[in-house]
Amino acid sequence: MTVARVTEISATSDKSFEDAVNQGIDRASKTLRGVTGAWIKEQKVTVSGGSIASYQVNMMVSFVLDD
């Protein structure tokens, strides 16, 4: 039997939402063993001077627990 856990993380990028997701998954994979997937819960931008300054994603990352 496989048991998984889900944890929420936030990641920010000054390039794009896709880059924020990639950075978040990369960082989560360094700390959590057995990352199997993620889904994006929220997307948000920070605006400065009328332009987008940063992109932020809140995502739910699932990973399989060790036996």
Topology, pairings included?
Layout: E1 4-13, H1 17-31, E2 35-48, E3 51-64
Structural description of this entry:
With 67 residues, the chain is an alpha+beta fold. It has one helix at 17-31; strands spanning 4-13, 35-48, 51-64. It has a three-stranded antiparallel beta sheet with strand order 1-3-2, with helices on one face.
Question: Structural class, from secondary structure content?
Answer: alpha+beta
* CATH architectural group: 2-Layer Sandwich
Count of beta strands:
3
User: Count of helical segments?
Assistant: 1
Pfam family, one: Dodecin
Protein name: Dodecin family protein
Task: Sum this structure up briefly.
The protein is built from one helix and three strands.
Question: Notable features of this structure?
Answer:
67 residues, alpha+beta, Dodecin subunit-like, 3-stranded antiparallel β-sheet, 1 helix, elongated
